[in-house]
Design goal:
Length: about 400
């Protein structure tokens, strides 16, 4: 018997084989023209990204984390400001408000969508207002695993309280809501082009997408040390958040594949649903939301079942991952900020985050990429169900 073909958790090789010649030619052009940082490829990419998302402006930056940072810096967010964000997300979402001196206020997530729970968000905004120590300034909604958050509701809440709505779409580039792609639903959308994201380069890269021309201009200044019209006029405190030309050339080669890849991811999710639905908790989404299927995550009944299933998968040679094993408010880096966020007397500590805690015990992510075959998905599903 021959060994079955290995199943990758993310597969970047299959895609590279399709566009290798274009990538080589793009890199060779940059070696010739020599404009390695923010060269013409970056301008071309920005136009294409804005077009793809149906938004007014795209500003290429050095990573998804820097996209979040530049977007918050542009609002002047800092000490004394509360930034609301989910407790169940990647660390980068929470890191930036702290770096800027603001206070992250962790919000619980919805058990069905794994995205911000609007009722809990509303409650925590009210608590911050009631305490009066921090100003509610921004909400960072995350489109976790590729599924859009409920942006119309988040925007409405932000508008009511005069807050900035930032979409952390790092896992969701290409996702859509009510027929319109992520990019212009929030005041600004932070994208990551880390290699394993739905649109990834071969290094670090990111973009900020917005419909607001004034914000786009600020982002361009902030990513280049706060420069003004000329290079040596410094208008504000900025940072080095530039995108390099080689990463832009790689993204330009990959972007034409994305539409078809999103369809293939959706197909793989449908195969998973057919094989696993009813046996484990599978991702469900909600009406009007089109997931970009960046990560495919199921829920097992409890931590024990998850450990058992993960071991069975490993024995079968099928990769899996846990996104995320610990909610952010329990991470040493954030525990102290969490405690001072809301909860001065008479509250005696911030309200609990039970859904985020439970998801960390139960979640298990399966291989997901556009080059999975139906047979691959069947093998993964068999491995999941073997010791359930
Ligand atoms: C990947 C990711 C980021 C950070 O993106 P980088 O490009 O790695 O800086 C931010 N938020 C979420 C939810 C992510 O998954």
């Amino acid at each position: 018997m021959t060994e079955p073909r290995p199943i990758a958790f993310f597969d970047m090789k299959a895609q590279q084989a399709l566009i290798r010649a274009e990538i080589d030619a793009g890199i060779a052009r940059i070696l010739d023209h020599g404009r390695f940082i923010q060269g013409p490829e970056v301008d071309a990419l920005e136009a294409k990204l804005a077009g793809f998302c149906g938004a007014g402006h795209a500003v290429g930056v050095s990573s998804g984390t820097d996209a979040i940072q530049i977007a918050l810096m542009a609002e002047g967010i800092g000490p004394g400001d509360a930034v609301f964000l989910p407790a169940f997300t990647y660390t980068a979402t929470a890191e930036v408000p702290l770096v800027l001196g603001a206070t992250p206020v962790f919000v619980d997530v919805d058990p069905a969508t794994f995205n911000l729970d609007l009722a809990d968000l509303e409650r925590r905004v009210a608590l911050v207002l009631q305490e009066g120590r921090l100003r509610p300034r921004a909400v960072i909604g995350v489109d976790l695993y590729g599924l859009p958050a409920d942006w119309p509701a988040i925007r409405a809440l932000c508008d009511r309280h005069g807050m900035f709505a930032l979409d952390d779409a790092a896992q969701a580039f290409g996702g859509a809501l009510h027929g319109k792609r992520l990019g212009a639903w929030a005041h600004a959308t932070a994208c990551s082009f880390y290699p394993t994201k739905t649109l990834g380069c071969y290094g670090d890269g990111g973009a900020i997408i917005t419909d607001d021309p004034a914000r786009a201009e600020l982002y361009r200044s902030l990513r280049t040390h706060g420069e003004g019209k000329s290079r040596y006029e410094v208008l504000r405190t900025g940072m080095n958040g530039r995108l390099d030309s080689i990463q832009a050339a790689i993204l330009l080669a990959k972007l034409p594949l994305l539409e078809g890849e999103l369809k293939s991811r959706t197909q793989a999710a449908a195969w998973y649903e057919a094989a696993l639905g009813g046996r484990v908790t599978t991702p469900q989404g909600f009406a009007g939301a089109e997931s970009a299927w960046g990560i495919y995550t199921i829920l097992l009944p409890d931590a024990e079942a998850r450990a058992r299933v993960q071991a069975a998968m490993q024995a079968a040679g099928v990769p899996s991952a846990i996104y995320y094993p610990k909610p952010l408010h329990r991470q040493p880096a954030y525990a102290e900020a969490h405690a001072r966020g809301i909860g001065a007397p008479p509250l005696n500590g911030p309200p609990p985050l039970p859904v985020s805690e439970a998801l960390c015990e139960r979640c298990l992510s399966l291989p997901m990429h556009p080059y999975l075959t139906e047979a691959d998905v069947a093998r993964v599903a068999d491995a999941v169900l073997a010791k359930l």
